[in-house]
Fold these 4 entries.
Entry 1:
Amino acid sequence: MSGEFHKPTKFSGSKFEGMIGGEDPAQISRVAHETATALLSRVREDPDPQIVERLVAYTDEHGIDALAELWSRSSARSLPGALWRIYLMRVLIRQDPQGTSYLFQRGTEVSTTIDPVVAGAPLPAGPGEITELADQILRGLFQGDFAVALDRAAAFCRVTAVGATSLADDLEPTEPDRATELTTRALRLSQTAAEFTSCARLWRHESLE
């Protein structure tokens, strides 16, 4: 089966924003929800550690393309939308663990909230710790408290956004283009954090579909 998928490739965070096909949107939505529900229900009912680890590492072998086809166009506040964003977050972290860990660490130093604690990364958080955090969050979807895993993902995004904003402020006088790039990244991370929080709330009310 592995031969049917593309090997992992690097991509920008906005690569899939333009993915628009000619398929029936209603059918795409139905397939996305059915596959997300079936996958999550089956694994959570019997969370075999080997299966969970294969799912966590799925994109390492197959890339993100297959999941993009399934879930990337789903509502951000839906089960497939939540799964897609968690997987995408993990892929982006693994593509740049050094840069991500730097922004996260910077965020922990200037954050005035409990988000660094909620995220659950050891401090100081280097590239290895941030990569492991992403894996822990993804495992939590399949064998832990789903809402807590989403809360951790939201906290991670908020802390990293704070770090990106802080660094952007430092760079604004000397590197305005880089500062703008970091500000844009912070805004996207903050939006993603809000989406994770909404999904966690819906899950707790048994309304995430």
Entry 2:
Amino acid sequence: MSRKIYIRNFLIAAIILLASSFYYLPYYVSKPGMAKELEPIIEVDGGYDEEGSLMLTTVRMGRANIYSYILAKLSKYQEIFPAEMIKYEHETDEEYALRQLRAMDTSKLSAIEVAYKKAGIPVEYRYKGVYVMSVLPDMPAEGKLKPGDRIFKINDVMFKSSDEFKQYVSKKKKGDMIQISYVRNGKANRTMLQVMPFPDNRDQLGIGIVLEDDKEIIVEPDVKVNTDEIGGPSAGLMFALEIYNQLTEDDLTQGFDIAGTGTISPDGTVGRIGGIEQKIVAADKAGADIFLAPNEKGAHGSNYEIAVKTATDIGTDMKIVPVDTFDDAVFYLENLKEKK
């Protein structure tokens, strides 16, 4: 084979390989992410330092191409999910990303509330309106509103919550026109929309948007949580522990590196998350001594049960601790003996 033919065939093969890497399958692949220390990204004004560390854990999730799909099939701690298990019907990539970021924001608010209340510090909320989380196809808002818009007024009525918004619209009649005032990219806008029945429920009227409350928490001392582009609700427990640890003089870490996961509700309940196996792998690679896992009240197949199995499989010395509530986690850490 001549050199010219060899180079031509090589280039053709390279182009085919490159092009096929951009052909996405109707699947998502998740793999171990990272264990990230929280002290550098959470700052309570005048907060206390810690000897060890509290860490959130993540998974890496992405659309599958041919190569990532094959690799996931061959890898023990990568999982493949059909696209419909990850994204809602008709949900765009933009709406999915926004939903994950809003879930993180909600998680942060719950974590702050839980931590401050545990420390005996009062909490207040200021409501600013509602966020548009998604826009339904073939409804009046399509092409007029976008995910991320913050609605603060209908006609001349100011309102604070999604419930108030829904109650106001529900009193309208089919065909009524309403003026929506909203903020997009820091600029106030207005648009006129017609109230219409939903395609899948002709008895329900609306403009075709999915809403979530936009609110900010007011606490003293102030707290900043800088999560950048990390999405999802699963860091709630660890956020709450880091905030509480900075609010109180006694160091919960006792010099240990403590990773964990779990959603957090305003009442302190710790909830199940996805990707527990990948998070155990990530925490072990980061050198964590302890991992806090949602116990789900001892249910069969709980995050804790799967975490213990994964820890055994990878041969880690990391201790897996079950927690059902924020108080469970604090109680366990308060009774740790200082690391030698």
Entry 3:
Amino acid sequence: MFDSERADQVNYASIAVSIPPDASRTVGQVQWPTSSPGDPRLNFVTVSAEAAEKPAFGAALAAAAKKPRARGRVLVFVHGFNNRFDEAVYRFAQIVHDSGAPGAPVLFSWPSRGSVSLEAYKEDAESAAQSRDAFSQVLDAIAATPNVKEVTVLCHSMGCYLTFETLRARAIAGRIGAKIKNVLFVAPDVDADSFRTQLHDMGAVRPGFALFVSRDDAPLKLSKSLHGGAIRLGGIDPDQEPYAAEFRREGVELFDLTRLHGRAHSRAFDDVTTVMSMIQARLVGEQQGTGGVSRRQGAALR
């Protein structure tokens, strides 16, 4: 539906994805079709994809948030570097399905180039930074939607940079949003020292932050070198100071995924039996993601 070009405004869409039975797939992975349109018995298949206006998005989200599974909760996903729109849609569908996470799912997709190169990384970083206002608009639209009581933001890699910069700007403006309860950072490609300072500057009235880190995350080690040796938040040792004491004092939860199997940068989404249960427990324990949006596009998943 959308390419990697930046848009002048947020675009909305509604997308329905069919997921094959667990007996026919490897849980924690996306089963891509080898040819279009795919076999719903074996593959993820797009059932419908339609553009929507903002009022229609609000109405769909209000209806989804009212359903028993959501109970007024919304789960927003912000993807990372090197993610095409279709990849973000299917990955989020997999996360929601495999985790059983409560809440109406909303994907915020920003214009990633969807390729791996130094130039693409720099362009993605610029696109993420330029998407802050759009993401803030989306958070406002979600908070203003009837039946929505609380919002959890789940972000990955560079998407965590976009998320944190957006929330920091909102905090400075005094409107971070009371409905945003939890922020889950998975393999965050964020400057660790800047996060420490800026988190403190956000003040006490802020969402609860949970960090999912891996000390063996090779992409984040590469990102560290690209940023002049600045330590990336997703690659810290959670037992090392000053992180351990400072994050404990700030109420930041740390989950060390280093010992888990799978690719370090995405193992949080691959290992459904451990990390997904952490996310689900966090969401359900708080008590207090169907709609979607993006600067480039958005998707409502059901």
Entry 4:
Amino acid sequence: MPDSPLIVARGLVKRFGDFVAVDGIDVEVRPGESFGFLGPNGAGKSSTMRMIGCVSPPSGGTLQVLGMDPATDGPRIRARLGVVPQRDSLDEELTVEENLWVYGRYFGLPRAVVQERAKELLEFAQLTDRASSIVEPLSGGMKRRLTIARGLVNTPDILLLDEPTTGLDPQARHVLWDRLFRLKREGVTLVLTTHYMDEAEQLCDRLVVMDRGRIVAEGSPRELIDTYSTREVLELRFDTDDHAHRLGDVDGIADRVEVLADRLLLYVRDGEAAHAEVLRRGLEPLSALVRRATLEDVFLHLTGRSLVD
């Protein structure tokens, strides 16, 4: 069936000795969607991706990728996957173009096909003018775009991206998001891990929030925010070493209050009205910021921790 899930995991487990990295998760990824695993470092995201990519066997549960079992059909599955690892593994002594040629030959593609595909991918990655450049001196953003282009050489059914923009500056991240958004519009199925809430909101149609190897929530970014947070958040910073001491001062203003080391987060329907009430009470915060709720707030509500902990 054309709409059957491309990835189905049931009770999926990954252990390393006594340590349980992935603790019985259920996941389905549908054709053409951009699906994300959101969580802090150590949540089990990369371990899950390695199982889906058929380079790490599950310790328990069941996993099907493209209707096949990774335990018996690993090579056939890998031939239909594109993989963008967390760290670039480019051949830095070769040129940009040669990296694509060599990778295409790994898949047994004819030389003429690889060369034509390389031209298309260099244009997609905005690297045409650097085709003959040695890779080593390129910027981090260029190397990341080349790694994504390389992952598309075999025209994969699924593109796996592990922390695609870690270490990039804001401008390079936005260029990369634009390239991935174009892939999504073309119907490429994307599966990505990230600990950046803005990245998940930008790229993911649907995602799971992971913490300590388990899934704690699932849905679209908008659904998760609507379910687990208020529409707006008022951030207050006071001149104090412990913001918990100011909880009584803001009692009754918000639906919920979270105490962080350097500020209070007031979860409210109307941030400006809440700020006006703070001032009416004679409180004098060092700073006050009204913002819309994000996936960071969802994670904080579900786990009591920040995504960057």
